[in-house]
Backbone:
């Protein structure tokens, strides 16, 4: 059995490796620059840009404070270890510090070009009618809970509800540092096995849903991908989702078709048409980028690591609720017998395993 002192020694060694690659002075300098921008008298003239800067400032400040807190905790624990003053009741402090250190380690591993970006996640029900649509809504809730735990902001871009229950499809923008890096490996087919709540005989039912994960991309990120206005077919309509009188009276919802590729995206939940247009373009830009990766498979390893397109044939995880309880990731073989916690947003162990931790 590993002693507390041995655990502290492991923490010290692990933190020293991180300290070598973490430029605290540079991070604090970047923080001061962002703080300077936020005090500009014209800062809030562009609210969208200001909101992004404030989010970046908050994320960076949180990261620096966490680094300093970890450093302080480990220094204290190390000093106590040298004095042979560690006691059993300090086990929790060691455990909490390790958890904070592991989170920081993950973020430092996410070094691909768009890993720090916000993400767009889309969930599509597979074949199976109401059963599959209910499964899509369960996954939707799982990811919303995951974001809520991490204090990431979510914006629903479009939603298509099932006739009886659940969702045919839903797209959500997830705003938060490293959102794409954390979630990109969730792309693929998710399989559910359970007793059907929609069948009087409670028969066992297998359902599938497809998850797509894309990074938030700016026009300047993709100089090779040109989106020409003449290639866009814009349609505007009244949103069918709840939204009060504004939605009923004004055609704020947007359907955008990119004529050369045939890609169609919608954005319907914002009250203002211009905002929906912006979200639709962001979604289209990301879809064109991911399609380019599929077409250039020889460059995928360099751009994204081991790339897995979100296709129906690519099953990544099974969620079994009957006749036994288990969630198993088919890529890493990580599993748990508590699917309720997983479906309530606790998916970190699967994400971290896929990242190689």
Residues:
């Amino acid at each position: 059995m590993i002693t507390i002192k041995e655990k502290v020694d492991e923490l010290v060694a692990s933190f020293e490796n991180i300290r070598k690659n973490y430029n605290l002075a540079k991070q604090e300098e970047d923080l001061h620059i962002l703080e300077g921008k936020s005090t500009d008298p014209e800062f809030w003239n562009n609210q969208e840009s200001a909101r992004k800067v404030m989010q970046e400032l908050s994320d960076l400040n949180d990261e620096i404070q966490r680094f300093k807190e970890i450093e302080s905790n480990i220094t204290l624990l190390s000093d106590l270890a040298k004095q042979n003053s560690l006691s059993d009741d300090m086990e929790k402090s060691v455990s909490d510090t390790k958890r904070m250190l592991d989170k920081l380690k993950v973020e430092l591993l996410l070094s691909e070009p768009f890993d720090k970006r916000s993400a767009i996640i889309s969930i599509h029900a597979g074949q199976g009618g109401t059963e599959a649509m209910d499964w899509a809504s369960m996954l939707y809730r799982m990811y919303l809970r995951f974001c809520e735990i991490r204090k990431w902001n979510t914006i629903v871009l479009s939603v298509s509800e099932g006739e009886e229950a659940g969702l045919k499809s839903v797209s959500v923008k997830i705003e938060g540092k490293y959102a794409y890096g954390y979630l990109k490996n969730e792309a693929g087919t998710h399989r559910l096995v359970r007793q059907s709540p929609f069948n009087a005989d409670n028969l066992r039912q297998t359902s599938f849903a497809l998850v797509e994960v894309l990074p938030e991309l700016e026009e300047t990120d993709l100089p090779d991908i040109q989106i020409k206005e003449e290639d866009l077919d814009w349609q505007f309509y009244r949103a069918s989702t709840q939204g009060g009188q504004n939605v009923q009276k004004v055609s704020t919802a947007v359907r955008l078709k990119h004529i050369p590729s045939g890609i169609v995206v919608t954005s319907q939940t914002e009250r203002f048409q211009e905002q929906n247009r912006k979200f639709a373009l962001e979604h289209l830009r990301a879809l064109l980028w991911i399609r380019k990766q599929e077409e250039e498979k020889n460059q995928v390893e360099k751009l994204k690591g081991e790339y897995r397109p979100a296709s129906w044939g690519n099953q990544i995880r099974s969620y079994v609720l009957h006749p036994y309880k288990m969630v198993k990731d088919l890529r890493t073989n990580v599993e748990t017998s508590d699917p309720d916690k997983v479906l309530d947003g606790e998916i970190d162990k699967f994400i971290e395993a896929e990242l190689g931790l």
Notes: Residues 4-109 form a domain with the Methane Monooxygenase Hydroxylase; Chain G, domain 1 fold (CATH 1.20.58.410). The mean pLDDT is 87. The two ends are 22 Å apart (CA to CA). The chain has eleven helices and eleven strands.
